[in-house]
């Protein structure tokens, strides 16, 4: 993974702006539509809503946020990788850590338009268990589940 060492660390609000900028870029590229919430609201959501409901880990390279995952022992709420750092193993590294501390099964939703995410999750042992979840983006969703073998 080039010469730079990746560090995984617990989320710290000092990384809020970087995390949100990366998240918005990555999501926009994945689903082809602009984020509906303002940058400020997104930062507030990260710091005061998501972080109270889920454990959040960041992947850092040279103090730069290159990945984020929000999870608990049963579900993954968010997983985004910086658009310039995809395909380097950051996603699988974050996912493996979450699997290791999970209850033995994890569920998540991904957008039907996001075929890269579907390939990624299927490659890492997730199977489709449902379709058509309501979300703010009004996009069709797929629900996935991973069960520890």
From TrEMBL:
Pfam families assigned: Acetyltransf_10
**InterPro entries in the cross-refs:** Acyl_CoA_acyltransferase, GNAT_dom, MshD_Acetyltransferase
The domain of life is: Bacteria
Residue ranges occupied by any N-acetyltransferase domain in the UniProt entry:
6-149
Q: Please give the PROSITE patterns that the UniProt record associates with this protein.
A: GNAT
- The protein's name is N-acetyltransferase domain-containing protein
């Amino acid at each position: 993974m080039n010469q730079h060492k990746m560090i995984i660390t617990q989320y710290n609000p000092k990384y809020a702006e970087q995390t949100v900028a990366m998240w918005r870029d990555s999501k926009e590229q994945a689903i082809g539509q602009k984020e509906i919430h303002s940058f400020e609201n997104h930062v507030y959501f990260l710091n005061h809503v998501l972080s109270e409901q889920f454990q959040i880990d960041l992947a850092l390279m040279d103090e730069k946020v290159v990945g984020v995952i929000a999870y608990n022992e049963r579900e993954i709420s968010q997983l985004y990788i910086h658009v310039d750092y995809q395909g380097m193993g950051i996603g699988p590294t974050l996912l493996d850590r979450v699997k290791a501390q999970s209850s033995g099964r994890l569920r998540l939703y991904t957008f039907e338009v996001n075929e890269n995410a579907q390939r990624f999750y299927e490659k890492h042992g997730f199977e489709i268990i449902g379709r058509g979840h309501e979300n703010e983006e009004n996009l069709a969703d797929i629900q996935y589940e991973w069960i520890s073998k």
